[in-house]
Amino acid sequence: MDNLEGQAFADSAREVLGTTLRSTQFAVHRRIKLVSLVQGFVFCSMAKKFFASSSHLNLSSQSVQKTTKLINHVWIHSKKETPPPNFHLSQADLDQELQHIFGAGIMYNCARRDNPLNLILPAYEMLWRVVLRLGIEVLCLDRERRHLYEVVLFGFANSPTLENLDSQAFASGMTVRAIINEALRLYSTRRVYRQHSSARGESDDTSLVAADIEYLHRDAEVWGLNALDFNPSRWLDDGHVKGKNIQKQRGSFMPFGYGPFACPARHGAAHILIGVLVAVLVKGLGDRNVGVDEGASVASVFGERPLSQERDSYEDIVLVTR
After folding, report:
1. Which of these, 52, 43, 268, lies nearest to 165 by C-alpha position?
2. Is 93 exposed, middle or buried (0-12, 13-18, 19+ CB in 10 A)?
3. Cα torsion for 80, 81, 82, 86, to the nearest 10°?
4. In the 8-state DSSP scheme, what is residue 237?
């Protein structure tokens, strides 16, 4: 992703968030659900990035909200060995909503590999969860270092390039890559599932194999006694982990998978997307003085650290204009 492409994505993300916060629902009631906001923001930003040239793109708030809920439902049940009996109905509903958003021509008159879900779903699924939790870390939980994180992220969003991921020009002693790597360590994929065939190659002799990424990323023997703390400083040696267990840490860090199934965005593109989205989200909410209900403490709202990884966590949290 070059500088012009990164800047275009940042401009588009600002437009998406601004449109959402100027929506009738938020403008009138001054309240909006945090998870719904982040999911819609990330989904629309990715749709505009991958399908900017589409003349049909229809990102109405109602369609986007219904689509993100269906994606969440389908994603959860697709990971089960035995999906529920009505699973096909959810898939059909999702196809219908995607047709409404992207157009029948894109959805059904092209090769299967060109289905928008093949681009949107993997990117959206990882990004919204990381963007949500990193946004919470910056906005609500690490008040002492919030200004430092904001300076770094806001500076990066104005010039989102691969080179600037590791630059300390925005603020001495911190980089965008360090902040994002720490978010990926604590809040990326929890487990990876793969169908494994036996060495005999028999089609019916397969098993479901799982890799516990969350355990690898939070193991105190590898990451130290502060393994559960959000601490980007642990990554400040050229973006790599530092300490006595550096080789174990590098080998245990796999937010993008491993081997032939590793995410192609692992070499920097994902970091740019996350950095821009979090920067735009934090600045957009901060500029409008939007936050969680002042009547509740941060501890009572978000619970203990690290933040929960459950998919339905924080669904009831409402942002208000203070």
Report:
1. 268
2. middle
3. 40
4. B
